[in-house]
Amino acid sequence: MSAPLACAALLLVHDLLLAADEPTPVTDLVEVWVVLSEPALATLPRDANEQRNLLRQRLVRQQDDVMPQLAALGAVEIARVQWARNAIAVRIPPAAIEAAKKIDGVTAVRGVSHRNRIGD
């Protein structure tokens, strides 16, 4: 192999390796609600303060456990909700949605059609 050809091949490999390390562009992500298995805070009576505090701790723990797994799939967190539903809104590569559905504690992954409503 000639020197110029070898240099060109090395540059091509270098560029491919750099491209593989780059994060997915935000424009290539879709917004979804990742619904989790713990019940929402609204499922408890208003006067159940102690139960609500314990449930809130479980919700935060579950969301904190699931989010790094979603991030490993390329997801970027947008929001978390706990009152009406236990869910995390994320931007995620479309190819990672099936893997997100398989994370322990995830009951559904639904597209966001309106950012201010979680029942989409």
Features:
120 residues; 3 helices; four-stranded antiparallel β-sheet; single chain; alpha+beta; Alpha-Beta Plaits
Task: Write a short abstract of this structure.
With 120 residues, the chain is of the alpha+beta class. It contains three helices and four strands. A four-stranded antiparallel sheet has the order 2-3-1-4.
What secondary-structure arrangement, pairings included, does this model have?
Layout: H1 3-21, E1 30-36, H2 49-72, E2 76-81, E3 87-92, H3 97-101, E4 106-111
Antiparallel strand pairs: 1-3, 1-4, 2-3
Please provide a written account of the structure:
- The chain is α+β, with helices and mostly antiparallel strands and 120 residues long.
- 40% of the residues lie in helices and 21% in strands.
- It has a four-stranded antiparallel β-sheet with strand order 2-3-1-4.
- The model is unreliable at 5-14 and 16-20 (pLDDT under 50).
Q: Work out the number of β strands.
A: 4
Order of helices and strands: HEHEEHE
Strand content: 15-25%
Please bin the fraction of helical residues: 40-55%
Query: Mind telling me which CATH architecture this is?
Result: 2-Layer Sandwich
The global form is elongated
In whole angstroms, how far apart are the ends? 58 Å
Q: What is the CATH topology classification name?
A: Alpha-Beta Plaits
Q: Ranges with pLDDT <50 over ≥5 residues?
A: 5-14, 16-20
Q: Would you state the CATH class? A: Alpha Beta
**Total of DSSP H or I helical runs spanning 4+ residues:** 3
Q: Biggest sheet, in brief? A: 4 strands, antiparallel
Radius of gyration: 20 Å
Please list the strands of the largest sheet in the order they lie side by side: 2-3-1-4
Q: Helix/strand-derived class?
A: alpha+beta
